[in-house]
Design brief:
This protein is mostly beta strands and 178 residues long. The protein is globular.
Length: 178
């Protein structure tokens, strides 16, 4: 009887774990901590102030900077970012509330003249597709979140899911306490 109870419990827990969001099992990190993707991409996430002057907000601006260093090998990675907190792969957690990004700035010096550092305001109507980045050495993604005033003082975490395409195919999800 005891043995069948234990087996039933293990099966039940396994089923529950299979239905949980992958972000629950994400690697936990602190702001500024180095996170590796593959053996050649190093990532640091921190809170920052960046210029998103053209973006109108209803609440308070919260900017997350994702610094990436691919060394001399270079890297190609992809991610999905949009204004839907349930489908974007990069979102802010303010307490238990998920907040989707409003705008992003891509700054990759290896792009040469194509590196315009333009503020890309995310369109709520565009929820399909993703972004693929190919770069050498260092670059950053600055992401703007519009935090409602009532959540301004709540502890913040950012969840990031990236897929490295080259030089090695690997997915990584991590949550950074800011």
């Amino acid at each position: 009887m005891k043995k069948s109870f234990v087996i039933s419990l293990v099966i039940l827990v396994s089923i529950q774990l299979a239905n949980i969001n992958p972000a629950v099992f994400a690697r936990q990190a602190k702001a500024g901590e180095v996170i590796t993707l593959g053996d050649s991409l190093f990532i640091k996430v921190s809170k920052a102030t960046a210029s998103f002057s053209r973006v109108k907000l209803k609440g308070e601006a919260f900017v997350v900077v994702i610094e990436m260093d691919s060394g001399k090998k270079g890297a190609t990675l992809s991610y999905k970012i949009n204004t839907d907190p349930d489908s974007t792969q990069i979102f802010l957690m303010s307490g238990a509330k998920k907040i989707a990004p409003r705008a992003v700035i891509e700054d990759f010096p290896s792009w040469g003249q194509d590196n315009d550092k333009e503020v890309d305001i995310l369109d709520p109507k565009e929820t399909i597709g993703g972004t693929t980045l190919t770069f050498q050495q260092k670059g950053t993604l600055s992401i703007l979140f519009d935090v409602p005033p009532e959540d301004a003082r709540t502890p913040k975490k950012v969840s990031v899911a990236l897929r490295m395409v080259q030089p090695k195919d690997e997915d990584r999800t991590f949550v950074v306490t800011l």
